[in-house]
Design brief:
Elements lengths: L13 H22 L7 H21 L3 H12 L10 H18 L3 H20 L8 E8 L9 H7 E12 L4 E10 L5 H11 L5 E4 L9
Antiparallel strand pairs: 1-3, 1-4, 2-3
Helix pairs in contact: 1-2, 1-4, 1-5, 2-3, 2-4, 4-5
């Protein structure tokens, strides 16, 4: 069978429908596996990615050129309102991937849907494994007393334990008696994290220090 030949004929048979649904399910599983690479998606999100191609495929297959059914489906989907928070850019891309695969399967182009899904997921895998500079950065929060001139107080410590650092935010705390300094740092050697924090504690009067990975927030697409 040609790659761009549809498995659907003039009439939808049970065998053709099961082939389309099976292909959509396989595309959803591949998309869910790709979404889990170097990420921690929720179980509900992975289930949605697996089921979405089959749902889209069945809906579009049932329309199958029927204008009345198409208008009814459009009206039904317009009643659905999503009030969830915005997802990450990768999550949105995976949802579009699942929907596209479902649409291709609805047209009977199961081979195209599978090939498309595999290619997109392979590209996603390669890009996910490529390290980016901002992935190495960590959030450092240092609390200092108001009597400490913090501009160059930690310069030698940063030079010793970090490859680069930058002050991104400063704010007062405790009625102005304390300052909270927020840095982005890239550690030269993560095995010396404790030594790094100990030397910082000696400079800030043993006040609070926090070193953490940047949280995964919502990203603009």
């Amino acid at each position: 069978m040609s790659l761009f030949e549809s498995v659907l004929g003039k009439e939808i048979t049970l065998e053709a429908y099961l082939i389309c649904i099976g292909g959509a399910l396989l595309c959803g599983i591949i998309a869910a596996a790709a979404a889990s690479i170097k990420a921690y998606p929720t179980k509900s999100f992975l289930i949605s990615l697996i089921l979405l191609p089959m749902i889209v495929s069945t809906v579009i297959t049932m329309v199958n050129g029927n204008i009345g059914t198409g208008v009814a489906v459009m009206g039904a989907f317009s009643l659905v309102r999503f009030r969830s928070v915005a997802g990450k850019a990768k999550d949105i891309a995976c949802i579009f991937l699942a929907m596209t695969a479902g649409l291709a399967c609805a047209g009977g182009y199961v081979a195209v849907a599978l090939l498309f899904t595999v290619i997109v997921c392979a590209v996603m895998l390669v890009v996910s494994l490529v390290p980016f500079a901002n992935e190495k950065e960590m959030n450092l929060e240092i609390t200092v007393p108001e009597t400490l001139h913090f501009t160059d107080a930690f310069a030698d410590v940063f030079k010793k334990y970090t490859k680069k650092h930058r002050l991104i935010r400063t704010k007062t705390s405790n009625m102005g008696s304390l300052y909270k300094l927020f840095f982005k740092v890239e550690l030269a050697d993560k095995t010396k994290t404790q030594e790094f924090i100990d030397e910082l504690r000696c400079r800030n009067g043993n006040l609070e220090i926090s070193l953490s990975e940047p949280p995964e927030g919502a990203e603009e697409l």
